[in-house]
């Protein structure tokens, strides 16, 4: 394995993904440092989910390479080392909150207080005995997040995890993400909400399946001269497309 690839949690090189006649990703190159929070940002349909699926190994790629924690994406060795939270909650509706999280904890070999601690981290302690079928959409999303968090993965890939959450819970989740990163967990978090970008160490900006830039929030502001990250992103897009 390339030593340079091993120094990053994620190393994507010249990635091409085609869906039918549509080119979903075009020559994408991204590197994600270990123990960092990287925001994957861009409008709906820009390729964020496709890139995440490529990183966790569930997407067929046309060409290029994706290395995750020093292994090819999708390797069996990565199954307990990578957590993935999809946009659609992936839980068992006939099980309670605790039973869902306990099931995934058992798969990862986690014991002790891990289940209760994880449920508390996503703000579901008061609903721990409720069936998943009785939860709201936002609560289901938090339960799906808990099922991935309980495994204590080295890399956590989150596809728009804060959609539908109230501002207080969103802030609490980002604080938890920062705590995880401080412990050494690498987080890749997609969003189409630019005000979440300031929570990230680095930003990966996509547009129409192409990488526009990878830089820090401060670098984005400096490059565009815009204090607002949303306006900075728009200016960067216009500059890159000549609009």
UniProtKB/TrEMBL annotation:
Keywords: ATP-binding, Nucleotide-binding. CDD domains: ABC_DR_subfamily_A. The keyword Nucleotide-binding applies. PROSITE patterns: ABC_TRANSPORTER_2. Residues 10-233 form the ABC transporter domain. Gene3D superfamilies: P-loop containing nucleotide triphosphate hydrolases (3.40.50.300). One of its GO terms (molecular function) is ATP binding. SUPFAM superfamilies: P-loop containing nucleoside triphosphate hydrolases (SSF52540). PANTHER family: ABC TRANSPORTER G FAMILY MEMBER 20 ISOFORM X1 (PTHR43038:SF3), ATP-BINDING CASSETTE, SUB-FAMILY H, MEMBER 1 (PTHR43038). This is ABC transporter ATP-binding protein.
